[in-house]
Amino acid sequence: MSDAKRRRLEEAVATVQQRHGAQSLRQGGEFARSPSIPHISTGFAALDAMTGCHGVPLAAVSLLSGRTTSGKLTVAYKLLANAQRDLYGNVAYPVGLIDLSRTADPDYLARCGIHLDALLVARPQIGPQTIQMVGDLLQTRRLRAVVVDSLADLATDRSALRQLNAVLGKLQQILRAVGSTLILIDDPRPPWLRWLNLDPSNQVRWCAALHIEMQREQWLRQGNAVVGYRAQARLLKSRWVYGLRSAPVEIVFNGTVQARETW
Amino acid sequence: MSVLCCHIPDFSITLACRQHPAWRDQPLALLGPDERVWAVSTVAQRCGVQGAMRAPQAQIVCPEVLLRPLDVAAAQAEQSALLAELAVWALPVEAQGWGMAYVDLHAVAKSAHVVQPLAAELGRRLRHALGDALQPALGWDSGKFTARAAAMQATPGHMRLVDKADEVRFLGPLPITLLPLARPHLQQLHWLGIRTLGQFAQLPATAIWQRFGAAGKLAQRWAQGRDDRPVCAASSQASPPVTVPIDPPAGLLQPVVEATMASLRPLLAERAAGLEGVRRLRITVSFVTGGASAGDMTFVEPASEPSRVQVALVQHLCSLRWPSEVQSVQWALLEAGELAAPQLTLFAEPLLRLAPIAAIAQQLSSRYGPLFSQPHLTNPTHPVPERRGALLALVDNPL
Predict the structure, then answer these.
(1) Residues B152 and B19 in one domain
(2) Chain A contact for B318, CB < 8 A?
(3) Once rounded to an integer, what is the mean pLDDT over residues B73-92?
(4) What domains can you pick out in chain A, each with its CATH number?
(5) CB–CB of B147/B102 below 8 Å?
(6) ipTM of the complex
């Protein structure tokens, strides 16, 4: 670029910066050096490493699916516990749980590390109103994470599911504005349902930034007592990494629910 | 030395509430001249509003917050009244922002039983001059840091006198976050498990010096009750103006900011080593065409971090109209002050931010009914896991 052109460019930049502030124009290189994606750790190092964003992303929808006793709810509760904590490990943020399955147990929530005073539990009747409530809870801008347990229960009301599919885009906009995360829990669906366009949560899978499927592999025993279980977390979708990945996780019940690293 | 610290908690907020009693029970934030939050009421703090936030940020955090401009003239008048009352004894007085000042009693009183009647008389006079709402808390000790800590421990209308012999016992259990150390240093201490001034005071001085430098060494002396800084009037803190030539003259922001910051950095480093920061800077920008534009940069809390000063400088320069290229920048330190201890932001009290849970439930229950609850462990040792806890409704069912 010639000197005259460079000078004209600098003058134009100076004019814009003076009129609209120093941050109004920035060099493209500054964006390339953007910091890591805002996230919440899952509490399982192997799982964090697999997702590509060191956990579950903030300002986006994430999906956790798996059969009963696969560990998806435990991972979700661990996420809530981590979402409550700030950089120094202090409980600093409230979180929400929409318990459509009516299975939230205070004892298990506490053993997963959730600070109960900072947890809001809602048990609405399943219907279109449920989806409005999710939006309203996020729009309060005070909850750092909201878990919906689960989409399978929501799918029992077709109108609620239609409402969810209709407002998913709006929910994503709200999440981007408030910086919270929405974690949806779902049952696994066979792929042929998707091929026949019969999968009720197909739209959610399409919109989710992260989709992890949990599969229980075996119970962990000490003698005759069950002390935990081993599960395989499969990454079905992530905005930051490509291809299928999986990580083994072990969940041990010993007073508190702990993650045992297997790699 | 013998230092009396006079501290009026929430000076600006109390003053505003005194003028407008209707604001008393509402979340209130006062906006300073730079359109940033200058002072926050306790209710607004619970909702997450913090000092130095912009008005829209405060409204996002707490939509109900009452944002009102700070009545600078009224606050200045009350501050002048406070300083005038303190100056009656003709002793050295050092103002530390609004609502706080040190008085050097070394010439008249050196022991607690002599200071007590003097402090009581001063408290009565201040209450008479400023009113019941603005009555101060008084702290006394042989050093400024301990006197300040004592004043902050005392409730308004009371005094806390600390004898030289009791200094270590008084300071020992206080949180380390009272020290105005840099945030990374406090983080390191937190990770090392050093939580109180007593623990910090007992660390080896050489290790402190190696890890935290001169500021750490000074902070450790304060934590040990050895603060020998003199009480000096604010006028003595001002420095002569420094002119920074911009050669060649520049019409862009970046070279002007870089040159000014290069000149300001030694001053900031010197102040930071003394755990002090700049409170007010006067910036005069001279242009090639002959005009000049002067303005003051005032910080809500004294600043010694170059990044923070740079952000303020950029904002200040952006707010000016540049008729031509800048020829020189002149800065002068008008007011300095002790760095603020970051105890309110670093290790935040969980309950301060957790209050909104009930508020969220209350807010949404008008639309959705009493669906919201909070889990509680009612009997954590019950043999049946399902009986150990219960979900307690956050909003009463009207039926």
Answers:
(1) yes
(2) yes
(3) 83
(4) 36-214 (3.40.50.300)
(5) yes
(6) 0.78
